[in-house]
Amino acid sequence: MWPELANALGFCVAFGVSFAGHRLLSFKDAGTSVATSLRRFGVTALAGFASNEIVFVVLLRWLALPSLLALFLALVFAAGQTFVLSRFWAFRR
Question: pTM of the full predicted structure?
Answer without folding.
Answer: 0.72
